[in-house]
Amino acid sequence: xxxxxxxxxxxxxxxxxxxxAQQTAQGRVITVAVAGNPxxxxxxxxxxxxxxxxxxxxxxxxxVEKKEAQLEYAGRKIRLxxxxxxxxxxxxxxxxxxxxDYLVNERPDLIVNVVDATNLERNLYLTVQLLELGIPVVxxxxxxxxxxxxxxxxxxxxxxxxxxxxxxxxxxxxxTGLDELFKSVLAAADDLAGHMPRKLIYGEDxxxxxxxxxxELRHRNLPLSGxxxxxxxxxKLMEEDSHVLEQMKLDRLDFLYQALHHLKKAHGDxxxxxxxxxxxxxxxxxxxxxLQKPELRQMELTxxxxxxxxxxFLGIPIFLGAMWLLFKLTFDLSAPFGGWIGAMTEGPFxxxxxxxxxxxxxxxxxxSLVNDGVIAxxxxxxVFVPVIFAMMFFITFLEGSGYMARAxxxxxxxxxxxxxxxxxxxxxxxGFGCNVxxxxxxxxxxxxxxxxxxxxxxxxxxxxxxxxxxxxFVSAFFPNNSSTVIWxxxxxxxxxxxLMGLLFKRTLFRGEAPMFIMELPPxxxxxxxxxxxxxxxxxxxxxxxxxxxxxxxxxxxxxxxNLPWGVQHKRDSYLGQAGAVVAPVFQPLGFxxxxxxxxLISGVIAKEIVVGTMGEIYAPQKDEKGEVPTLKEDLKExxxxxxxxxxxxxxxxxxxxxxxxxxKDRSSLRHALQGVFTPLSSYAxxxxxxxxxPCVVAIAAMRQEFGTWKWAVVGLVYQTMLAWSxxxxxxxxxxxxxxxx
Amino acid sequence: MNLAKLRxxxxxxxxxxxxxxxxxxxxxxxxxxxxxxVKVLKVAxxxxxxxxxxxxxxxxxxxxxxxxxxxxxxx
Lengths: 741, 75
Description:
Helix content of chain A: 55-70%
CATH architecture of chain B: Roll
Shape of chain A: elongated
Oligomer: heterodimer
Distance between the termini of chain A: 78 Å
Shape of chain B: globular
Strand content of chain A: 5-15%
Structural class of chain A: alpha/beta
Strand order of the largest sheet of chain B: 4-3-2-1-5
Low-confidence stretches of chain B: none
Radius of gyration of chain B: 11 Å
Number of strands of chain A: 10
Largest sheet of chain B: 5 strands, antiparallel
Mean pLDDT of chain B: 93
């Protein structure tokens, strides 16, 4: 058994263990769990302390983000484990289960409890629950500066005395109090036994019943010591906590119900509510003792802003404006940089690789593998970096500022009607730019059901990569009403998302709709450095985790295109052969030829590749062997084009004219397509491109966000089926109605 | 009388929480307790959800969830 810490009442029995705990504190790593309410400034505090040393991952098996950092302070090693922000430690939400399982099973040396000083009572409700665990607690009384500015007087020593914990006023945004916090943490770590929190009395009748339950347990030879902290276990049993009852494997609980019978009758309520009430009484009592609020309350800034932002008439226009700005900032700002990275990998990098490999006598296929497999693969990951970073930055800003909760408040009615949450709107919206940031943005949703359902529907939003496909086909077949046709595809995506949302709600996600009980936190200016740290962490995570899958698929596709050895014509490559094999599946959709099928297969890397592959198959162009630039020219070009990208990003942001880039001439491809497709089959093809399986990057994003392939596979399967059915209905229905020609 | 029926600006005292299980626990964890004073601040532009003030912070919840919270209207 690892170091077991007990409550004060049972210290005598466990002295040996305390010694062991002290040893841990002296020499080895001190494990500190950071717990607190959402919006208590906990992540800002963690970001301020750990900065880029933070390691972001997922808690095993769930979609909850896990942050950890190894630090050194005053020569001591500290391991910080950030627990999910929770209001309580109930057994119901993923976040709460993760937090309590960690605290109970992993037994950190101590807990830093981040408490919002401007909202003491509700924050102390969690503190009361943390104190039940018999782990020393150091309280970071955060947002203290704001509380002072509001005229709150908080008796810090009073809290220390009443709870038996060290209390340090902090301001994470201003980075004050962090040194003191660490000093208190080390002081507590050096004398864990001396820093045990006080046992709080939950009211006479509850304590009497608790005593009775404890007696009964002893009587039945079921001692409370062992795996779990004694006081915590006792209180959980009394709460009839489903998880604990299950884990204790108590066959007969009659004695428990008997002991609790009077209590329930006297309070006229269930045990869970009685205990919640008792804990809140403690939190309220304590708040009354230590907090003095000014008599006259001024209208706060948050109220003033909300009068406008949540106004009956202005609320929706403001929301739409904010969303438009979010979309613009995310995509317009990042696009030139994505383009710059793309051009860099396409041009100079490939040239350099060839320049390095050819003199070494590397065979052509190696050069091709490096260039078109490896470098192209790395490139396809890198082009996403700017957009992911931009999206993360602005989403984190929306959350940190408090507007995200308002956006959800405004949109919930609409989104709820298709079984989604108010916050689902933002991932969907981002999906129109690119599905990948859209999928990542689902992390703002707390409930796993909302999160998964939203991520499954995001790929139905027609992303920017599908537009080039539409453009080529529309210019070949619908030159006179091109915008109407493209518009119809976007609308179809939205309508099918609504339809699929309703369908999923009744099938895969049956049951009670997740609740919408959400705090509307005060508006706050998030700290810039905290935003950057978070953006960097998430971006890095994407780069290495999702990047691995994307890279692997790119290499695989290269092999498909270039094997068997010495393949001359695309048709004979594995890709072409695969296209020929699956082509009959597309026969009823109107495009059952190997060319279309192969293009669709290669389009899983990114949907715009459909056009590229078609171009290569239908209208192969001779390699232009112009002058090869020197290394110096290449380097200069990279720098110049980066400058141009910055310039362009700023200009697009402010609607200044940007010189049009020369579009690739696609006229030969258009002619070739006109020979193979009819307007009807081309429309069916576009619908198929819109709907069929998400690109590998989106699939990798889903895999990474949900920690399992399950939902990625569900998405892949349902979308491909949907695409096939929709294209079938359009082609066959259209032919029947006489649009076939 | 229940919380969903209060108009913006109206206050009430919670007399009972009708919901059960996780929903009730969540409400209680957020400070929605019997005896607590609650004030409706706003209704979302499209009529649902609502924003209330409880334990000196702002909470939003859907009307369906608010229907389960019985209140006694106070001045």
